[in-house]
Amino acid sequence: MQCLPASTHADLIVKTRLLRHLSLACLLLLLVLGSGYAAYLLSDRSGIQTLAESGERQLELNARAVESEITKYTYLPSLLELEGNVSRLLQFPTAYRRHHVNQYLAGLNQRSGSLAIYVLDLDGRVIATSNWDRADSYLGEDLSFRAYYQDAVQGKAGRFYGIGSTTGEAGYYLSHGLREDGKVIGVAVVKVRLDTLEERWQRAHLEAYVSDENGIIILSSKPERRLKAVQALDDASRERLARSLQYHWAALEELQFAGREALGDGLEQISLDHDGSITRYLLQTRPLVDTPWHLTLLSPLQEQRSAALLNALLAAVACALLAFLLIAWNERRKVIATRLAAREALQAANDELERKITERTADLQASNARLLAEVSEREQAETTLRQAQDELVQAGKLAVIGQMSTSIAHELNQPLAALRTLSANTVRFLQRGALDVASSNLQNIAELVDRMGKITASLRAFARRAGDQGEASLQQAVDAALLLLHPRLQRTRVKIHQEFAEARLAIEQIRLEQILVNLISNAVDALQAQGDRHIWLSGNAEAEHYLLEIRDNGPGIAPETRAHLFEPFFTTKPGEQGLGLGLTLSASLAAAAGGSLTVRHPEEGGTAFVLSLPYPREPQA
């Protein structure tokens, strides 16, 4: 057997040790890179999930805003049916009637904040418009090719977004067929602007757009994306859209994506080219209620990707540091082999402590996560409750308006009949040359029109939605409530006694009017069986609150029903006369303003409701 020289054996040991160290270094490098990559994937997935959840909330919030914006004008076209001059112009067009309707439409357009309001005859030609005195007036335009006209003539509600063929200005069109004796005699159209939504998105630094039923972007926080197609259009679709002139002469180019990748659960990752710079976004889309439109939200992924890279770098550094510590510990263990037993015991205790700390940390993290989830659920529940309360308030107002509809129709029919008689007499007096009598008749007609305008204006103000904050005038609220209830008070011959001083209260004006309408209506209902009917409104100013008492001389409330007065849907009236929500809503509105609504039962009879509301806060210097 031949032995190796000592020098050769030493060289072999050195080479073996060098090879072992080199293999260990390669293994550690792979481990560091692998941990960094795994941390990147986990962080990226978690970041996208978090971004998607945040985007979902933003999408829902902005979708509600868009839906609210496009529906708040829906009542306006049908309002023109209440204006008798519009119907007379459609049936018997004259220059005088056209001028009168033009001025009425101009005033209505200014008050509502719309772009334009105009009336079309059955041939689709504009016979009256709010912009009659402008160079780009619609007067005389043939708009029979528009879809909103064709829908309205058929008795359907027209809804259409397009670019005006006269002014080239984009807008949202709402149309309504004007009827006379059950037949459509013309079409009322309201054009409104929606670019305020784009301004809000831009101020909030939010990237979003709305695409219509044709896949064309009609609203966008980035003006350069407007009127681009979110999907490829075939030649037939392009020709159809060009013929419709819905988008005027826009080229309708396709929105170009530098990259597009589906992430599942309705999420997409897209890339857009901004002046040579590629930006990645998380794309989320939601359909809008009552329209074929879709709202799309683009959430930038740059910050999330940067955070994922940083987490990957931290994980790699932590892994390298851990590996270095393990190697150092192993070398140290070899050096102090004589203390192995003690060190193992110490290490076991240390490992046990770390395990307990890890478990405790995991428990604390789980508890924290549960608390965050509960907070989120509670906030969502509060938001849902607030929305439900607002809808309930609006339902209460509409219920009151429904109960008053017959009286209001009677109140409007009287001046309408007088208008018909006076206008006919005026024509005959003008033919006879009796100008003084004709002038007197015209003045009476104007007063009747003002009276009808006050009635419809009070109804429109009462029906609109109100916010939680505001400041109200007590006298103005009482006057508005009495104006709304005037036909009923006049019919039932109820005497109203006002014994209060003017006061400013910390509640929105419309909400105070709704409370007063509910309370006075209930008092009138309680007086139905009385021969002598009285209602007293008396006030009392205190240090921080103002007390307004609404008292009647009715039969009072039965003791067995007093405990249920403020319960929802509890009512002693027949089903067609009340929903049982008036007192519940009134008490809720008073509480939301920091006040209260209570009831007392006077010994002399009747019922008295006491409304307590705070004064407005003084502005801080």
TrEMBL record:
<keyword id="KW-0547">Nucleotide-binding</keyword>
<feature type="transmembrane region" description="Helical">
    <location>
        <begin position="308"/>
        <end position="329"/>
    </location>
</feature>
<keyword id="KW-0808">Transferase</keyword>
<keyword id="KW-0418">Kinase</keyword>
<dbReference type="GO" id="GO:0005524">
    <property type="term" value="F:ATP binding"/>
</dbReference>
<dbReference type="InterPro" id="IPR036890">
    <property type="entry name" value="HATPase_C_sf"/>
</dbReference>
<dbReference type="InterPro" id="IPR017055">
    <property type="entry name" value="Sig_transdc_His_kinase_DctB"/>
</dbReference>
<dbReference type="InterPro" id="IPR036097">
    <property type="entry name" value="HisK_dim/P_sf"/>
</dbReference>
<keyword id="KW-1133">Transmembrane helix</keyword>
<dbReference type="InterPro" id="IPR029151">
    <property type="entry name" value="Sensor-like_sf"/>
</dbReference>
<keyword id="KW-0902">Two-component regulatory system</keyword>
<keyword id="KW-1003">Cell membrane</keyword>
<dbReference type="InterPro" id="IPR004358">
    <property type="entry name" value="Sig_transdc_His_kin-like_C"/>
</dbReference>
<dbReference type="InterPro" id="IPR033479">
    <property type="entry name" value="dCache_1"/>
</dbReference>
<dbReference type="Pfam" id="PF02743">
    <property type="entry name" value="dCache_1"/>
</dbReference>
<dbReference type="InterPro" id="IPR005467">
    <property type="entry name" value="His_kinase_dom"/>
</dbReference>
<dbReference type="Pfam" id="PF02518">
    <property type="entry name" value="HATPase_c"/>
</dbReference>
<dbReference type="InterPro" id="IPR003661">
    <property type="entry name" value="HisK_dim/P_dom"/>
</dbReference>
<dbReference type="InterPro" id="IPR003594">
    <property type="entry name" value="HATPase_dom"/>
</dbReference>
<feature type="domain" description="Histidine kinase">
    <location>
        <begin position="407"/>
        <end position="617"/>
    </location>
</feature>
<keyword id="KW-0472">Membrane</keyword>
<feature type="coiled-coil region">
    <location>
        <begin position="336"/>
        <end position="398"/>
    </location>
</feature>
<keyword id="KW-0175">Coiled coil</keyword>
<protein>
    <recommendedName>
        <fullName>histidine kinase</fullName>
        <ecNumber>2.7.13.3</ecNumber>
    </recommendedName>
</protein>
<keyword id="KW-0597">Phosphoprotein</keyword>
<keyword id="KW-0812">Transmembrane</keyword>
<dbReference type="Pfam" id="PF00512">
    <property type="entry name" value="HisKA"/>
</dbReference>
<keyword id="KW-0067">ATP-binding</keyword>
